[in-house]
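Today's session is about reading a structure prediction critically. Students often jump straight to the picture, but the first step is always the sequence itself: look for stretches that repeat, for charged clusters, for runs of hydrophobic residues. Only then move on to the predicted structure, which in these notes is written as discrete structure tokens rather than atom positions. Here is the chain we will use throughout the hour.
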Amino acid sequence: MSETLSASLPLQRPLETQPLKILWPYAIVLAGLHMACLLAFIPWFFTWSGLVVAVLGHLVFGMLGITVGYHRLLTHKGFTCPKWLEHSLATMGMFNLQDSPARWVAIHRAHHRNCDEQMDPHSPLVNFFWGHVGWVVCRHENLHRTLRYAKFVPDLLRDPFYRRFERIGVWLAVYGVHALAIIAAGAAFGYFFGGADGALRYAASWAVWGVVVRTVFVLNGTWGVNSLGHMFGYRNYETEDSSTNNWLVALVAHGEGWHNNHHADPRAASHGHRWWEFDMSWWVIRTLETLGIAKNVVRPKIWSEAKQQPQ
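Below is the predicted structure for this chain, in token form.
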């Protein structure tokens, strides 16, 4: 059902990553989060409310923050909206531990400019691990400091709101504050139903499920677009890269897995082009448009090739 797309010879890592230098703060935090996920297998940490918070966080912070905010709005300008909403979406993007808005956008724009070539920051044609997460924990000279990647995001850096998150540690502090807020809410919820013992258990449960498990799930969903979305799946369009449409990635990343469609028409706010290619993020944007909040919504140039066009 799926076809594997890969180069006959693997790519070399970008020259800017050679010699290899590990970004230990990134590596330690990400490894620690993945190890902390194992706590989810201990029954004491499980509560139904913690699971609900995790699912809602995935839908709200993952979809609105990363897919709709960081990607379709900030990176590709697939629609416009009031600044209060744009900044809110960008803030929710930081709740997923995926770097500052400007750096995330810069990396993704660099990917589109040199997709599946040696200058691509995260092509899986180097190897699967590199395309999935290896690039995250390795230093890239052109994408490490704001002055180096500013050329990719001059539009964002003209806005003082985005510039303030380029200061060392500020975007990470935003993630930390959001995590503490969830844990505190869990403690309050638990105290209401079970006193001090309930407060402790629900704070721990919401920390594990609502923060750690949800963050790791969103991270791997986003990374899966870069790795699985360039190796396994089908292609509607003959693009100059190895992008594919992958239903599993589309499911966990709210429509981002229709990646070949996206590379065929990057600015389009809708990534699903066939009737079966459900794109939840597109319907969020479409709803905002219906409410008069989203403007200048960019539709695919190839709607005429799709079997069904949204009304």
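Discussion point for the tutorial: Confidence is low (pLDDT under 50) at residues 1-8, 306-311.
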